[in-house]
Amino acid sequence: MDFTTFDKRGYRTVDVRAGYGEWVSTYEDTVEDVMDIALLDRLRVPDWAAVRQAADLGCGTGRTGRWLREHGVASIDGVDLTPEMLDVARRRGAHRSLAEADATDTGLPDATYDLVICSLIDEHLGELPPLYREAFRLARPGGLFAVVSFHPHFIMASGMPTHFTSRSGEDLAITTNLHLISDHVAAALGAGWQLAELREGVVGDEWLAVKPQWERYRGHPVSAAYVWRRT
Ligand SMILES: C[S@@+](CC[C@H](N)C(=O)[O-])C[C@H]1O[C@@H](n2cnc3c(N)ncnc32)[C@H](O)[C@@H]1O
């Protein structure tokens, strides 16, 4: 679904590499843990400490990787499209390996991972089936795929793309696509996954503590976490 119908900001849009290549210097100061980390904290299905090998697609600066390591995940291979984000992840040291690659064509080995995870990247993908197919290829039988997303309802209601403020002070959007929850379900089932868990994050006190200007969105779903199982 096309985001431009809902766009209330009208920011100039740049592609993923250009956007994150510049946002990297302030990324960790602006991304809120309550968007993704708070949802990971609520998931019940993955037994994180039992995960020996994980693949982290769109690993960025390694925030997700650090959380996984803190929760007992032994070994994580990360891929990302943006070299500058990978440089920060390299310095952080949470991953066993890091490579510049597309999340839909990672070059990682078949049927290897107990857990494949991608956090806050799917709105940048034009379509979801290639992501779900690649994750299915990487997961071992019985393995899990955890997807954390910017909620489509929130993108529509706020009219806000993924965006940042450039060094020159311009607000820039990074290519943003809308994927309904049913798009995730269709792509996942089509690739062979079965749903194991789904949680949604809503704007509440935790959010308003960091974004008081979001009072008008109180109660709106803002993020979602899906856990799929390869049976
Ligand atoms: C919002 S950041 C999330 C990073 C990290 N998962 C986190 O939670 O902080 C999105 C990341 O996805 C990466 N990305 C976007 N599209 C991608 C694609 N098709 N393949 C690989 N990485 C991609 C970007 O380069 C960026 O580092």
Automatic annotation (TrEMBL):
<dbReference type="GO" id="GO:0008168">
    <property type="term" value="F:methyltransferase activity"/>
</dbReference>
<feature type="domain" description="Methyltransferase type 11">
    <location>
        <begin position="56"/>
        <end position="146"/>
    </location>
</feature>
<keyword id="KW-0808">Transferase</keyword>
<dbReference type="InterPro" id="IPR013216">
    <property type="entry name" value="Methyltransf_11"/>
</dbReference>
<dbReference type="GO" id="GO:0032259">
    <property type="term" value="P:methylation"/>
</dbReference>
<dbReference type="InterPro" id="IPR029063">
    <property type="entry name" value="SAM-dependent_MTases_sf"/>
</dbReference>
<protein>
    <submittedName>
        <fullName>Class I SAM-dependent methyltransferase</fullName>
    </submittedName>
</protein>
<dbReference type="Pfam" id="PF08241">
    <property type="entry name" value="Methyltransf_11"/>
</dbReference>
<keyword id="KW-0489">Methyltransferase</keyword>
<dbReference type="InterPro" id="IPR050508">
    <property type="entry name" value="Methyltransf_Superfamily"/>
</dbReference>
